[in-house]
Amino acid sequence: SILPGLRECATDDDVAMYLIKHAEHFEKYLHYMVGQSQAEACISDKAVQQYFKEVTAPEKPGDAPVIDVLTFLQQPVERIQTYQALLKELIKNKAKSGQSCYLLEDAFSIVSCLPWRSDNLHRVSLIENYPAPLTALGEPVRQGVFTVWESPEMKTTSRGHQRQVFLFKECIVLCKVKKDTSMNRDTYSFKNKMKLNDVEIKEAVGGEDRSWGLWHEHRGSIRHYTLQSNSTLVKLSWLKDLKELQQRSSLSNNCPPVFESLLCDCSAQIGQTIKLTCRVSGFPKPVVSWIKDGLSLEDDPRHIIAADRTGTCSLVLDCLTAEDSGQYVCYATNSIGSAGTLAKVVVQ
């Protein structure tokens, strides 16, 4: 648990920075949540429950009862819910007083995405008949159920097929939804995989606001897929992510670092907290370093260095002093080349 360290935090920003600094530890929560349903299924058997009841029984009359195993398995999930509720309250109170909430919002983003990330990975584990290890697909960016027609003409003559669609960084996977009444769950039978580089996106198909198309070129032929979302908002969200991923994958296999957004100059008062951000792309993935006035910066209580999967890099400067004034550079390098972006910070 990260909770004990939170109790030592003196301010809202201390809480946020503590969670941001321990962001990698939340990956353990992610793996736990993915396997939680399997763990609960293992102990659903009455004989197993009886065993746990016997081994956890108090040794002497009057002893405090040992926590029930199902309650124990639920504790990490409840802890995440506690973090979310705490951060929501802190953001609400700080926003009311007109203060900046960006650190708290970053921390909330780290915590709040865990449930849907775990759900995404769990659903990937339910794919059947995929012709390679599922781990090769990585973590999905999005997943959801769509009504799918395999050509635009079919839409007028059939009701379409229900498909579970997974969007990964480099491909789209379509699966047939299979109802498993005995297990009271759905499984997904693999149907087709499309590399993003081989797909042409059609934003409007058949005059339906919720419909969009994927024209897939494969081995000299083109397959037409029309997808219908539950809402226009879902469609727009998928199209946005598809276009961004396609743009990245269209880069050559190897490309030097490129800063898609640059650092900005800023000024602040002594004692305040500021955050410098930029975004870099490149392949192989660039190694990023931060430099102030020619000297390398390391991650410490006053300098929090972070980077996410989208290439966004950030440097948080906490409890500013006059010595923090200067020129800051974010420098990215890979085997193909290097690039940098700089900003001037003035502490008044």
UniProtKB/TrEMBL annotation:
<dbReference type="InterPro" id="IPR013783">
    <property type="entry name" value="Ig-like_fold"/>
</dbReference>
<dbReference type="InterPro" id="IPR003598">
    <property type="entry name" value="Ig_sub2"/>
</dbReference>
<dbReference type="InterPro" id="IPR000219">
    <property type="entry name" value="DH_dom"/>
</dbReference>
<dbReference type="InterPro" id="IPR036179">
    <property type="entry name" value="Ig-like_dom_sf"/>
</dbReference>
<dbReference type="Pfam" id="PF22697">
    <property type="entry name" value="SOS1_NGEF_PH"/>
</dbReference>
<dbReference type="InterPro" id="IPR055251">
    <property type="entry name" value="SOS1_NGEF_PH"/>
</dbReference>
<dbReference type="InterPro" id="IPR013098">
    <property type="entry name" value="Ig_I-set"/>
</dbReference>
<dbReference type="InterPro" id="IPR001849">
    <property type="entry name" value="PH_domain"/>
</dbReference>
<feature type="domain" description="Ig-like">
    <location>
        <begin position="256"/>
        <end position="348"/>
    </location>
</feature>
<feature type="domain" description="PH">
    <location>
        <begin position="139"/>
        <end position="247"/>
    </location>
</feature>
<dbReference type="InterPro" id="IPR051336">
    <property type="entry name" value="RhoGEF_Guanine_NuclExch_SF"/>
</dbReference>
<dbReference type="Pfam" id="PF00621">
    <property type="entry name" value="RhoGEF"/>
</dbReference>
<feature type="domain" description="DH">
    <location>
        <begin position="1"/>
        <end position="121"/>
    </location>
</feature>
<dbReference type="InterPro" id="IPR003599">
    <property type="entry name" value="Ig_sub"/>
</dbReference>
<dbReference type="InterPro" id="IPR011993">
    <property type="entry name" value="PH-like_dom_sf"/>
</dbReference>
<keyword id="KW-0344">Guanine-nucleotide releasing factor</keyword>
<dbReference type="InterPro" id="IPR035899">
    <property type="entry name" value="DBL_dom_sf"/>
</dbReference>
<dbReference type="InterPro" id="IPR007110">
    <property type="entry name" value="Ig-like_dom"/>
</dbReference>
<dbReference type="Pfam" id="PF07679">
    <property type="entry name" value="I-set"/>
</dbReference>
<keyword id="KW-0963">Cytoplasm</keyword>
<protein>
    <recommendedName>
        <fullName>OBSCN protein</fullName>
    </recommendedName>
</protein>
